[in-house]
Amino acid sequence: MNILILGGGGREHALAWNIKERGQGKHELFIAPGNPGTAQCGTNIDIAITDFEELGKFCIDNKIEMVIAGPEEPLVKGAWDYFQKDQLKHIHFIGPSQFGAQLEGSKAFAKAFMHRHDIPTAAYKEFSAEQFEEGVNYLKAHSLPIVLKADGLAGGKGVVICETHADAIMEFEAMLVQAKFGDASKTVVVEQFLDGIEMSVFILTDGKEYVLLPEAKDYKRIGETDTGLNTGGMGAVSPVPFASEEFMEKVTRKIIKPTVAGLENESINYTGFVFIGLIKVNNEPYVIEYNCRMGDPETEVVMPRLKNDLAELCLAAAQHTLSDIKIETDDRSAATVVAVSGGYPGNFEKGYAISFPLLRRVGGGYYFPGRYKRKRW
Ligand code: AMP
Ligand code: GLY
């Protein structure tokens, strides 16, 4: 198959790596815009992920049969919808419709969806600027800490956990009145704080059937020993030690199945990944968030453990044959660590090259080439 992956991060490298390795050369891969990692798996294409017109032209010119969206931005901006045009609709597009992508793009949409389908999540209430006074009174009576969430996409910074009522009111005002996150905080969700341990669950669905991919846990704090500011994720592991069979059975019954049934009942066009961010409280799972894509850095530990060819899985989703698929998982553990520019997640400079000697596989281990040749890694 000729496949185009959208994105240029570690996640897209992991997706491309799986397709190249597990597909054993069956697929021709293109990645827009890609990175030096993805260049080892296919051909990088210099087109922006939101330039739908150029992407569409590229797909026609290069006989692309499948597009896999890595990040949420093109999905929330309607990439799937664009690919429903006559001349593009023969291409299997892996990612939900713009409407379905609201599961990630709007916290209020996601909370209302969970509410409609009885999916366990933190209690909440949403407020717009016209309801500012009502919101302040609600906050004053709220138990501490209080979780405030900008409704829209805010680059991973839209969630603030406030330890005092004064902080919560200040933050609420900054979001709603001073538009701290622009349009993204025109609506604010106020949520009950859940105290527990988090993990990430991933499914690939056609909006009716689904397959469960290996689970993962990312570590969000910038500092050693889980301290400091939250980031997009400084590393991840898979499997997750506390995701026992019993717990995962609860996750399937109380969260995954009602989520997929909800998509089906509401006739939401959704062929793609659902990343469910969970928190385990007293051995019960609650949804913290939905994402309409795979996670980063989680994908970097999920893909090495997935023995199936991801392209075949995506094709099965597009052709509604997921129920014929058996997911095969490598029992071994995977871990990934993220290297970031100094200052992250505050102010930092972008554009540095990451140089890292390529690891060469020799016998049962990985070795650095050159002077590290004899050192097993
Ligand atoms: P989100 O963008 O919704 O995933 O939130 C980012 C992070 O904020 C999560 O990974 C959690 O660590 C934290 N968080 C979000 N909602 C809650 C909540 N209701 N209770 C406790 N922590 C939360
Ligand atoms: N690692 C969290 C995310 O991808 O949203």
Automatic annotation (TrEMBL):
Keywords: ATP-binding, Ligase, Nucleotide-binding
Taxonomic superkingdom: Bacteria
InterPro entries linked to this entry: ATP-grasp, ATP_grasp_subdomain_1, PreATP-grasp_dom_sf, PRibGlycinamid_synth_ATP-grasp, PRibGlycinamide_synth, PRibGlycinamide_synth_N
Domain ATP-grasp: 111-319
Cited SMART domains: GARS_A
The keyword Ligase is annotated on this UniProt entry: yes
Pfam families, per database record: GARS_A, GARS_N
Keyword Ligase among UniProt keywords: yes
SUPFAM superfamilies according to UniProt: Glutathione synthetase ATP-binding domain-like (SSF56059), PreATP-grasp domain (SSF52440)
Protein EC: 6.3.4.13
One function term, GO molecular function aspect: phosphoribosylamine-glycine ligase activity
PANTHER family (alphabetical): PHOSPHORIBOSYLAMINE--GLYCINE LIGASE, PHOSPHORIBOSYLAMINE--GLYCINE LIGASE, CHLOROPLASTIC
Protein name listed in UniProt: Phosphoribosylamine--glycine ligase
Upper classification of the organism: Bacteria, Pseudomonadati, Bacteroidota, Chitinophagia, Chitinophagales
